[in-house]
Amino acid sequence: MNNETMTNFLMKRAFLTPDRTAVYFQDKALTFKELYNYSLNVAGQLQGLGVRKDDFVGVLLKNHLDTVIIFFALQLLGVRSVILNNRLTPSELVWQLEDSTSSLLILEDSFTDIKMVINQQLASLATITKSDLFAKKENEYADIQEEINLSDICTIMYTSGTTGHPKGVLQTYGNHWWSATGSALNLGFVESDCWLCSLPLFHISGFSILMRSVIYGMPIVLHEKFDVQKTIEDISDKKVTIMSVVGTMLTSIVDALTVSGLPEHFRCFLLGGGPAPLPLLEACVKKNLPVFQSYGMTETSSQIVTLSPEYSLSKLGSAGKPLFPSQLRIELDDHTAASPQHAGEIVVKGPNVTAGYLNRPDATKEKIREGWLHTGDIGYVDEEGFLYVLDRRSDLIISGGENIYPAEIESVLLSHPDVADVGVIGVDDAKWGQVPIAFIVKRESAALPQKELQQFCQTRLAKYKVPKQFYFTEQLPRNAAKKLLRRNLHEMINEK
Amino acid sequence: MNNETMTNFLMKRAFLTPDRTAVYFQDKALTFKELYNYSLNVAGQLQGLGVRKDDFVGVLLKNHLDTVIIFFALQLLGVRSVILNNRLTPSELVWQLEDSTSSLLILEDSFTDIKMVINQQLASLATITKSDLFAKKENEYADIQEEINLSDICTIMYTSGTTGHPKGVLQTYGNHWWSATGSALNLGFVESDCWLCSLPLFHISGFSILMRSVIYGMPIVLHEKFDVQKTIEDISDKKVTIMSVVGTMLTSIVDALTVSGLPEHFRCFLLGGGPAPLPLLEACVKKNLPVFQSYGMTETSSQIVTLSPEYSLSKLGSAGKPLFPSQLRIELDDHTAASPQHAGEIVVKGPNVTAGYLNRPDATKEKIREGWLHTGDIGYVDEEGFLYVLDRRSDLIISGGENIYPAEIESVLLSHPDVADVGVIGVDDAKWGQVPIAFIVKRESAALPQKELQQFCQTRLAKYKVPKQFYFTEQLPRNAAKKLLRRNLHEMINEK
C-alpha cells in the first residue's frame, strides 16, 4: 500500500533541511545532518553488537544529547525501543525487560548498581553502558531501514493499569506521526518555532517533542531536568516558542517570573499531566502567559485533546476539543453516549491511539473496542463539545507529573506477611501536587511499625511511589463486590 | 483499523473552529459553521433526489461559493464527485460521465446548450442545474456520513494521457489529507494564513486549496477567475498570505506590480503548472516576491515536490525536494536509478499519490509499479537531491539523437523583452528526425523580425536547439489552468 510507507523520519529530515538546528543541549548544538550522521554511527555500533530489525531493545537513559542519538540510531535499524522509566527499581525494570523480551539494555554509565542487579536477575539479557556502546567498533555498513511502515512499532512504554502488572503500550511510527501533525494543525507551525523539553524523554510527553522535531524540522532545547531559572534563561536566549509542562513546573515558572512576563517570541505552554488547578490558570492569565491545556496519555502518543487558541480564556479549565484526526466520546456505564454536562468515561479514537498492549490480547480487547480506547478517566463535555476532565482516573495519583497507580502499591504492601488489607489514595501536597498515602489493616496481633512498612516499600518501589503516611485501621470501606471505595478513604482522612 | 477513519473533514472543522472564516467570495463571507450548515441543507436536497453514499455524481461548475457548498454537501453524503472541466466539449463530457457511471450531473444554470446535448446523448443520466437543486425540498434528515475512511474515494478528475481516452484519477480522502499536511510541514501554517484561489476548482491546483481550508481551519479567498487587479487588491484587503499561481498568472502580477511589491503579510506564491522560466523567477527576486516553485499533478493530489524556504534563492529554477511524506526517484529506461545530474523519468511515491485510475486496471498497473507512480515527466536531481523538471516526456523533441526540452527554449525566448508568450514543439524533419519550432506572442506594438529571434537564440542555445521556424500568433492555446496545450500547437501547424 502506498499509504503505509515513508522514508525513515530522521533520514528524510536530514535530506530536506540538513543545516537547520535539531537539538540544543547544554553548550552544544547539532544540525539535523549532524544528528543523522551521529545516529548512523551508533546504528553501526549497535549492529556490531548483533542488534537487528524488529529486536526489542531496552533504553534506560537520562535526558541527554547522547540519548537522542541512541533513540534515532535504534529507529534507523528498525528496532523497537522499550523506553524505561529511570525511577523504577531494578526488580520493576527486570519485569518490563523480561515481559518485552528485550535482547539488550542500553543504560547510563552511572547506573552501576542497577546494572549489577539486572545482570544477576536476568542473566540472559545483554547490558551495555552508553560509553561502552560508543567505544565499540562500528559495522562498516549499517543495515539501515530507509523505509518505514507507519504500522511498524517504534517505541514501547509501560503503563500500570489499575490492576496487576504494567502493560507495554505499543506506539507505532504512525501513532507518533499523527500525534505530531494533529498537534501542528492545532498550534500552528512556523519556521521560527523551537520547543523546550525538560520533561523526561522516557515519558511520551518528552519523547513526542523529539518526534515533532524531526517531523517539523524544528529545533528543540533539551534540558537534563526541569530547572526554573535555566528555563526562563533559555526561553530568552534560545528563542524558545513552545514548552511542554505539567502543573508543578508551571507553578514554579509563574512564581519565579517577574511581572514582565516572557519575551514576545514565546508562543505558549502546552500543559498536560492531569487536570490543572484553576488558581494556576488564573495566575497565568494575570501574568499574560499563554497556556494551552491538554489531555493525553501514553496510549494516545501524547495530547489528544487541546484547547484551541481562540478559547484559551473563555473556556478556562477545559482541556479543549479532540485534535483534528481524533475523536472523543463520553460513555455512560451502559456504553451509551452521555449528553452534555453529564460525566462519564472518556473514550477516544484516532490514528494516534495505540493498537494495543504488547502480548496482552485480553487487556487490549478490554480497553479498545471497535477502535475506541476506554481511558478509565472521568469527564464531561459542555454543549459546545469542550472536554472537562474531572478525575484523571478515580484512583490515579499524579505526583510531580508521575503517574502512580494505587493498585501497584497495594500489591506490594499486600505481599508483606503482616498486612491483611490495604488501600492507597493520593492526598494534596503543596510541592508535588499529590502524594500517596496508605491505609493498613494489620494481621491480628502483629506489631508493625510505620518505619518497617516504609523500608519494605523502598526496596520494592520507586521513591515517588512510597506512601508518605501509613494509617492503621480496623477495616477498609469496601462495597458488596469487595471493591475498595477509595472515596470513603478520602473521607476518613478528613475525619482524622 | 484505527488508522483509517476520521470525522468528515468539514464537520470536524465546523466543530473545532465554528466561527473562523472559511471562504470569502465577492462580497460574501462564510464561517465554517455557516458553510457546514449550508452544505448540510444541500446534502438533504441531494438525498431527496435519490443520491446515496458511493454514488458517482458529475459536477460541472464554475468557481463560486455555491460550488464550494455543493462539493462539501457531496462529501457529507459519502458521494464520489466526478469533477468536470468547464472547457470540455459536450461529447468529451458525455464520455467522462459515461466512463465514470455517474448517476447525476449538477451544472451551471447558464450551461443550457451543454445540458441539452448531454440529455440527448446520454438519456440515462439525470441532470440538474444549480438553481433547480437549491430549490428542491430537502430530506428532513440527511443521511450524513459522519465518519470517513481515508481510503474512501472523495473525488475523480480526468487527465488526458498522451494517447487514447482520458483516465479518471482516483483521489481518496487520505490523498487530500496527506497532500494538505505535507504542504503545511513545508510551508508552515499560522493562524493568520489566508489562501487566494483563482485557479479553477475543477483542477487539483484549485480543489486542493479547498481541502487545505477545512483541514487547517484557514480562510480562502475565492475568485471566479484570475484577474490581476483584483488579485493585488485582495492580497491587501483580505490579508492574503499565500496564493497558488501558474507561470502566466505570475508574469501578469509581476508586470502589474509597482516597485513597492506586495504587503508584508504576504508569505508566498506557490508556483506550479510546469517548469517555470528562469527570467520570470529572476524578475520575482528583483521585485522581492517570494516564490516557491513546485511540481505536482492530478495523480499526486497537487504538489509533491516543493522548494523549501531556505533554498528559494540558491536553487532558483529547481522544483525542490519531495514533501516529507513523499519520495522521489529518477529512473533510466532500464528502470535503474539515475545518478545526480542525469536526466530520466520522474518517479514518485507517497500517501498523496493516487491508488490508480477508475476502471483502468491496465493503465494503473502500467503507471504505478510497487507503489511508484511513473509520471512520464523528464527531470534530474542535483547532488543534494533537488529536482529539476525538464519537460513532459511526450513533449520531448529528439533531433539528430539529441534530447531537446521545449521548456528550455521557451525560457530563453521569454527573456527577450519583446516576447510576451511562447510555445515550442517539435515537427518532423527529413534530416534530423525532428526539429524545434516556436510560436511567439509579441508584446504590443513590438516590431520583432524572425531574424532577431534567431540571433537571440543562437547566442544562448546550442545550434540544434535553435527553432527552425518562428510563427507569430495573437494567443497561445492554454487550458483553464493556463497550462500550454502543445497538442493544439501541432494542429495550428497543420492548418498553416
From TrEMBL, chains A, B:
InterPro entries: AMP-bd_C, AMP-bd_C_sf, AMP-binding_CS, AMP-dep_synth/lig_dom, ANL_N_sf, MenE. GO terms for biological process: fatty acid metabolic process; menaquinone biosynthetic process. Residues 408-483 form the AMP-binding enzyme C-terminal domain. Transmembrane segments: none annotated. It is an enzyme of class 6 (ligase). One of its GO terms (molecular function) is medium-chain fatty acid-CoA ligase activity. SUPFAM superfamilies: Acetyl-CoA synthetase-like. Pathway: Quinol/quinone metabolism; 1,4-dihydroxy-2-naphthoate biosynthesis; 1,4-dihydroxy-2-naphthoate from chorismate: step 5/7; Quinol/quinone metabolism; menaquinone biosynthesis. Residues 14-358 form the AMP-dependent synthetase/ligase domain. Its EC number is 6.2.1.26. It catalyses: 2-succinylbenzoate + ATP + CoA = 2-succinylbenzoyl-CoA + AMP + diphosphate. The keyword Zinc does not apply. Keywords: ATP-binding, Ligase, Menaquinone biosynthesis, Nucleotide-binding. Converts 2-succinylbenzoate (OSB) to 2-succinylbenzoyl-CoA (OSB-CoA). Belongs to the ATP-dependent AMP-binding enzyme family. MenE subfamily. This is 2-succinylbenzoate--CoA ligase. It comes from Neobacillus citreus.
